[in-house]
Amino acid sequence: MANFHTHLGVGALASVGVAVAGFSTQLYGLTTALLCAIIGTLGSLLPDIDLEHSRPAAQGFLVVSLITSTLITILYANRYSGDELILHSLMVWAVGFLVLRFGVFETFSRLTTHRGMVHSIPYMAVFALVVVCGAFYGLHLTAFVSWLFGLVLFIGSMVHLLLDEIYSVDAFGLRLKQSFGTAIKLFEKDKLVQYACLYLVLGVLYYFAPPYQDLWRGLVRITRQLMG
Q: Which parts of the chain span the membrane according to its record (predicted)?
């Protein structure tokens, strides 16, 4: 299994690459590119939300909570105006940080087992769709930007899972370690009911998510540009 700093470094590199690719093909502007790089990097740390006693992970998720709450505040401030905007923005930041650090991250670290369901493709897809719906309905961003943020978060999380699988291969001994196959997975035979519920949540989130066609058309356009 790759360590926390490896996940952070490789995840940041991949996320910056994705952000630059979209910006250079004029899929989005500079501000959106910067946000994509940050969100993708955060996504590359997300599967380790199930770590409970790792000091680097605890420090990392403290930073993640700070950055994420700041991002939410910036996006909130860009959408609204008024005499009490500064006060409201500070309240949004404080609530966002407390909910993330001592609500979401703390709860997951205590209730989950490392390399369990959190280390799976559908779980990361759920997180991505939560971002999509939260950005669209909560921050009133466009469907294009909402899906874009969800996509880069998902890409970052897949980089994390892929790294874990790569580190599960002993290249010199030409053998697979016991942890191989515990990162990238669609289900587990001994948790069929839990995964059924997870896929149900995934379906509900997708049903309420905004239309994705704008982002899809943009991705098709830049793919054609790159290929020809």
A: 27-46, 58-79, 85-104, 116-138, 144-163, 192-209
